[in-house]
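Q: what sequence does this backbone want?
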């Protein structure tokens, strides 16, 4: 990530320098996608979080097919797609500059989490509305925006102030700066709630699969295609995310405890055992590691 502009520059020049960075375009993918906002930060108003909030108002008032609701829903996924597209592009450009080449074949490319989320953002953009699909992107956006604000935006708006060296200090010593209370608060928030929020994302992604399964059972339009695509996505997430693995284990343990009661009919236990056997068979048959020569899947850089 590029460093923030020099604090010796006037505020207007610092903002212009920041707006010209690719990281700012990445940030704009979360906080708005109007071109004028790239140059005028104070007037941005289309954000992924705002879209989720605006759609939520329509949803709780049962107006989820109103013009504003549809606009908010689609704009949220446009923003998410642009954001992950920038991350994927940055990774590709970094490899090109380093002279290295990405592993050949579609499977190594599909193993990149950023590519997976980019693909799902595009799928949700054109698919029928599933409000639950916006929430994982919203949780990610909170932490991405918070991190960007702490590391780039705040140093640009409030350049760090150098502390005067103590008497007798070496002239060539490393300068020290006053801490920024706002940046420290944001950093503490990210550190304290990151794991909990990633666990929440995992739960939301599993719940979304259940929602798609319900749609498939009722033969909703396009639901079988969606659940096939999303099952592949969730399988990849399970292979790469300890949070998803932990959520599935917790779900399995809860259902085991539920069906293990004496009042549970034997048929229910047999059905649950069959589901677990089928899930394990599917897991083993779709282990991507067998097809990419055991190469480790690249972790998400955002």
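A:
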């Amino acid at each position: 990530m590029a460093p923030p502009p020099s604090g010796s520059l006037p505020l207007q020049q610092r903002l212009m320098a920041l707006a010209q960075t690719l990281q700012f375009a990445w940030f704009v993918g979360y906080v708005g996608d109007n071109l004028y906002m790239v140059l005028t930060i104070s007037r941005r108003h289309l954000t992924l979080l705002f879209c989720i909030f605006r759609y939520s108002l329509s949803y709780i008032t049962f107006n989820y097919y109103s013009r504003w609701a549809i606009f908010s829903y689609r704009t949220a996924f446009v923003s998410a797609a642009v954001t992950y597209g920038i991350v994927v592009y940055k990774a590709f450009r970094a490899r090109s500059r380093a002279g290295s080449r990405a592993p050949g074949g579609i499977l190594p490319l599909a193993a990149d989490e950023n590519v997976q989320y980019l693909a799902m953002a595009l799928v949700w953009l054109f698919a029928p509305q599933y409000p639950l699909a916006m929430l994982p992107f919203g949780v990610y956006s909170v932490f991405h925006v918070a991190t960007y604000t702490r590391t780039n935006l705040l140093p640009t708006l409030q350049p760090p102030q150098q502390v005067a060296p103590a008497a007798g200090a070496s002239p060539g010593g490393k300068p020290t700066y006053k801490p920024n209370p706002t940046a420290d608060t944001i950093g503490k928030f990210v550190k304290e709630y990151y794991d909990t929020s990633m666990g929440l994302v995992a739960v939301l992604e599993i719940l979304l699969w259940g929602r798609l399964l319900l749609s498939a059972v009722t033969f909703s339009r396009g639901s079988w295609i969606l659940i096939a695509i999303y099952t592949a996505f969730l399988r990849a997430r399970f292979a790469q995310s300890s949070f998803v693995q932990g959520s599935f284990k917790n779900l399995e343990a809860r259902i085991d405890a539920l069906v293990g009661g004496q009042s549970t009919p034997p048929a229910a236990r047999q059905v649950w055992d069959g589901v677990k056997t089928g899930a394990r068979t599917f897991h083993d048959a779709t282990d991507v590691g067998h097809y990419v020569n055991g190469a480790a899947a690249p972790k998400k850089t955002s």
